[in-house]
């Protein structure tokens, strides 16, 4: 019996409700009763198959680095909409990571990751995690899990990550959280802004009083700095990064998404009456207008956004699309992007084959992009690819 048939059987008999752990005792009974075996009806079949591919992966392949955590975040978006298998997978993944990662040596822990970046490992709390910047994103799906289950361990992990940013992570000369413990003074891209901003905004949302103010203050400092360093306010485009201690001269597709996600990650958690809320919403609008202006003829974003001779690409588009759609839906930016959304969503759907495999992906990273090595398409896929598309697919089918 395959996994999908097994899940359907569990839900049909009601047994599935007893197996969705941890935190089930404190999760909303009404929400749990609404769980079904089906993904949303309006999710295209090829994207359903992409989700199923994620669900078929062993937990050991879903690391707490971004390649794994963004996929768990994508699954939890569908869990929130009632998909039982996504909820079951995410909760069991969290249990697996709590149990397994603390038993690993440093060498075993780092052996899980494709990236060679290294940073100290925090073993103080219930979840072991590296303070390498992309590992800080583990707080994001864990926060989503907490919102569904009210599991106290999940809440503690979110606070542990924010505390690590406040007290352990190095800073570069601008005051931004360091990319890693090695070459951090001469290199950064806007993803470091994202990890630091959203993680502290989450902690601010989970706490009260002076403690909450402290977390929000750090989130705002990190986002202010990221905007000052990376955003070209004349064009509205986001610079690729800092290389060899110099601010870059190109505008990479995923950098647009990183800074938009940073802003939306703060606005999602910041009280709407906060004195800085309107300013950050204005910065999101500035980037959104620039991204819309440079949308490719097929609906994607070019690898270098302002270079129409570079290939159109799907992950940068999916990042921007999800952030802009949420911001527009929430009223944080204006509702003038319907054509952009339609073209971008069509491009995403056409970038996934019938089996759920993604194409039109710039699989290289920021340094090759800054060097204008723009044709590194579909070479070496990583888990972040379907994760980004799941987040966008959820937003576009709400």
Give a brief rundown of this model.
With 398 residues, the chain is mainly α.
What does this structure look like?
It is a single chain. The chain is 53% helix and 5% strand. It has one domain: Glycosyltransferase, CATH 1.50.10. It is built from 17 helices and 9 strands. About 6% of the residues have low confidence. With 398 residues, it is mainly alpha-helical.
Q: Which structural class best describes the helix and strand composition?
A: mainly alpha
Unreliable runs: 5-26
Number of strands: 9
Q: Helical content, roughly?
A: 40-55%
What's the domain count? Answer: 1
**Overall mean pLDDT score?**
93
What Rg is obtained from the alpha carbons, in whole angstroms? 20 Å
End-to-end CA span:
32 Å
CATH architecture: Alpha/alpha barrel
- How are the strands of the biggest sheet laid out side by side? 3-6-7
* CATH first level: Mainly Alpha
The largest sheet is: 3 strands, antiparallel
Percent range for β-strand residues = under 5%
In N-to-C order, the SSE pattern is HHHHHHHEEHHEHHEEEEHHEEHHHH
Number of helices: 17
And the CATH topology?
A: Glycosyltransferase
Shape: globular
């Amino acid at each position: 019996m395959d996994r999908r048939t097994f899940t359907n059987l569990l839900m049909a008999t009601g047994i599935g409700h007893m197996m969705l752990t941890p935190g089930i005792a404190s999760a909303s009974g009404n929400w749990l009763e609404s769980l079904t075996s089906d993904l949303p009806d309006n999710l295209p079949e090829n994207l359903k198959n992409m989700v199923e591919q994620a669900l078929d992966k062993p937990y050991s392949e879903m690391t707490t680095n971004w390649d794994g955590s963004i996929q768990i975040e994508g699954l939890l978006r569908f869990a929130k909409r009632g998909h039982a298998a996504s909820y079951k997978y995410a909760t069991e993944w969290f249990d697996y990571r709590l149990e397994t990662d603390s038993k690993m040596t440093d060498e075993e822990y780092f052996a899980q990751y494709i990236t060679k970046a290294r940073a100290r490992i925090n073993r103080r709390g219930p979840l072991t995690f590296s303070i390498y910047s992309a590992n800080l994103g583990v707080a994001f799906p864990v926060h989503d899990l907490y919102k569904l289950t009210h599991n106290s361990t999940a809440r503690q992990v979110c606070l542990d990550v924010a505390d690590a940013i406040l007290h352990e992570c190095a800073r570069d000369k601008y005051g931004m959280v360091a990319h890693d413990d090695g070459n951090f003074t001469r290199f950064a891209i806007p993803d470091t802004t994202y990890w630091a901003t959203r993680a502290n905004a989450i902690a601010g949302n989970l706490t009260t009083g002076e403690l909450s103010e402290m977390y929000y203050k750090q989130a705002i400092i990190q986002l202010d700095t990221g905007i000052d360093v990376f955003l070209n306010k004349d064009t509205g485009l986001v610079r690729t990064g800092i290389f060899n201690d110099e601010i870059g001269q190109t505008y990479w597709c995923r950098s647009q998404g990183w800074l938009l996600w940073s802003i939306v990650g703060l606005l999602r958690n910041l009280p709407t009456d906060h004195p800085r809320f309107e300013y950050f919403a204005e910065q999101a609008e500035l980037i959104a207008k620039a991204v819309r202006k440079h949308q490719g003829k097929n609906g994607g974003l070019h690898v270098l956004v302002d270079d129409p001779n570079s290939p159109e690409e799907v992950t940068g588009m999916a990042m921007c699309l999800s952030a802009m759609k949420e911001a527009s839906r929430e009223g944080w930016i204006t509702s003038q992007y319907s054509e952009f959304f339609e073209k971008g969503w069509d491009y995403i759907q056409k970038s996934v084959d019938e089996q759920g495999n993604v194409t039109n992906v710039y699989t290289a990273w920021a340094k090759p992009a800054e060097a204008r090595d723009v044709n590194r398409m579909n070479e070496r896929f990583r888990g972040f690819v379907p994760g980004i598309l799941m987040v966008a697919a959820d937003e576009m089918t709400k």
